[in-house]
Amino acid sequence: MKVALIGASGQAGSRLLAELSARGHTVTAIARHPEKIAARPGVTAVKGDVYDKRGLVALIKGHDAVISSVHYTASDPALILEAVRESGVKRYFVVGGAGSLEVAPGVRLIDTPQFPTAYKAEASKGAEFLELLRTTTGDLDWTFLSPSAMFAPGERTGKFRIGKDQLLTNDNGSSISFEDYAIAAVDELEKTAFLVDDDGNRTALAIVRDDPPLKDPSRWPNPPPKPRRNPNLTRSRGLRVRRHVRTSR
């Protein structure tokens, strides 16, 4: 498969690039600084500007699929969507954000009191982009795969669960590594197993690490309790636990 990857030098983008290359795909890796992209088999690094629609159209035309892995607040998602349409490429995959996922019927993660203010602008833009995709007239085969609440570097385990547009959790909270996310993303590009739901409608997807299911749902999205002090220690330093919710790439 010939894939155009927008944002190939980012945290998620670089893992997607590695996964695509390892599976033998031909990738046009688009970034502001292509010199930062590591040399890999089948990869051509090119300079591209997410605000240059004409330039993007020229770069992605002729590919089998386009992946968008860029910050929503550092780009114009509507412009990128227009560029994909004008290029004639029909398969479009978007690295989504957890903020748009539901934690209860009609309640998105971004709408909960616990959602960090620092990530609200990015999450709001991501949710707007998802709604924009949902209004497409069927000219694109799109996938919007949202990561877990915790989205960070980690191991490539291949152990994860895929769901629809609800936040997936397990007994350790809600997390997925960039590496495992990349596996799921490329799987979906190759197999398109979740392109539409049972009613034939395109749907957003979510992913979580495949740990034991959450035993006590009330723990999420609430932060976990602070760790207890070890009574066997005569002296110990206080520990502070913070939960960070990532929705960016």
Name some characteristics of this structure.
249 residues, alpha/beta, Rossmann fold, two-stranded antiparallel ribbon, 5 helices, 24% helix, 20% strand
Mean pLDDT value: 79
Approximate shape = globular
Helix percent reads 10-25%
CATH superfamily: NAD(P)-binding Rossmann-like Domain
Q: What's the level 1 CATH class? A: Alpha Beta
- Count up the domains: 1
CATH fold assignment: Rossmann fold
Say how many strands there are: 12
Q: Provide a count of the helices.
A: 5
Low-confidence stretches: 212-248
| Computed Rg | 19 Å
| Residue share in β-strands | 15-25%
The biggest sheet amounts to: 8 strands, mixed
- Indicate the structural class: alpha/beta
Terminal CA distance reads 24 Å
Give, in spatial order, the strands making up the sheet with the most strands. 3-2-1-4-5-8-12-10
Order of helices and strands: EHEEHEHEEEHEEEEHE
The CATH architecture: 3-Layer(aba) Sandwich
